[in-house]
Amino acid sequence: MPVEEGKTDMERIGLFSEMEYITVGDKYVSQFNRPFNEAASKNRQMLPGGSKEMSNLQAGYFDPHFARIFEGESYVNPNQVRRRYMMEEAKKNLSKAFLPSSGEKKPCGLGSYYGTIGGPVPFFSAQSKPKDKYEPPGKNLYTNPGKKGTGYGYANITIGKQFSHSSDLYDAAKLNNKKENEEHHRLLKGTAFKLNLYPREYFDTNPYMSDKPLPPIKKAEKKETVGKPFKPSSPGKKAGGMKAGTFDPYPSHSADPYVVKLKSPSSKSAKVFHPPSGPKSRPVESIMALNVKRALNTKNYKTASVQSY
After folding, report:
1. Spatial separation of the C-alpha atoms in residues 62 and 52, rounded to whole Å
2. Confidence band, pLDDT 50/70/90 cuts, at residue 177
3. What is the distance between the alpha carbons of residues 34 and 305, in angstroms, rounded to a whole number?
4. What does the pLDDT average to over 210-218?
5. CA dist., res. 157 & res. 148, Å (int)
6. DSSP one-letter string for 95-149
7. Can you tell me the distance from the alpha carbon of 49 to that of 187, in angstroms, rounded to the nearest whole number?
8. Cβ(117)–Cβ(101) under 8 Å?
9. Distance CA 88, CA 81 (A)
10. CA distance readout (Å), 259 to 254, 266, 267
11. Residue 3: pLDDT band by 50, 70, 90 thresholds?
């Protein structure tokens, strides 16, 4: 269809009015076409006039004059206070200032007091102190001189009396032992007691050795010879209606009536029950049943579905 000229898009759509936009009324500009800082290119810009360097002058600060923190505080100059203190201390001097001598005096040797302020010290003088006249002590107690000798071959050296000499036989110990041995054999009434048992070990070296007499030799028994082995008839018999092919004849008919016999429980032939020995196996729960118990409890058994477990 041909487009009518002179009508807007809203009139062609058929709406009463265009939807409102939350703007001031500016036209839409894409963000790709917008300038980065549009305000920087409009109106007058701030001209700082260059950066200021820090210095003791007022030009290094932002304010044109020094602003006080308090309006009525006192200003103190530390140099002026220091000078005033030095002038007050100088008034206390009674005369001129002390000036030391030009250069210090050096000692002329070890132990010399030349150049010291106090001079010699009488306590460290080398002169001897006055002492009393020496009086020797009295004489010591005099005793008889000690007896000379080493103790071997010298008589009358010990404190006590000298031992008297007694003669001793050369083989006295041997003779005494001989006499004791003869007296011992005289008191014996017979020969020494000896056991007839020879000591044996706990286990014999020969395990087959025995003190008991051997049994008589058994004679080998002759086994009776059995006849020829049984051989079935050839060919085998065939089963028929008259039981001709069996080994035994047809069993005879019993005339006993048909009665069910009950076994008495108190029979002596009944065997006693013996439980089997060894450990018995125990029932084991499957993993699926264990998961069911964990998933189904007292709180969710009403809401849990059958298909979940």
Report:
1. 9
2. very high
3. 63
4. 85
5. 7
6. SSPP---SSPPPPSSTT--TT-SS---GGG--SPPP-PPP-PPPPPPP-PPPPPS
7. 149
8. no
9. 11
10. 13, 21, 20
11. low
Q: How many residues does the chain have?
A: 309
Query: By the 8 A CB rule, do 181 and 187 touch?
Result: no
Tokens in use for 35? 């300038």
Locate 80 and state its tokens. Answer: 């002026």
Q: List CB contacts of 249: < 8 A, sequence separation 6 or more.
A: 243
pLDDT of residue 214: 84
Give the DSSP per-residue string, 168-185. Answer: --TTHHHHHHHHHHHHHH
Torsion sign over Cα 77, 78, 79, 80 = positive
Whole-structure pTM over 0.85, yes or no? no
Cβ count within 10 A of residue 92: 6
The closest alpha carbon to 78, from 86, 67, 66, belongs to: 86
More reliable by pLDDT, 291 or 128: 128
- Region 288-295: mean pLDDT is 73
269 DSSP 8-state letter: T
Give the C-alpha separation, 34 to 41, whole Å: 13
Look up residue 14 and give its two tokens: 């058929």
> SS3 string of 84-101?
HHHHHHHCCCCCCCCCCC
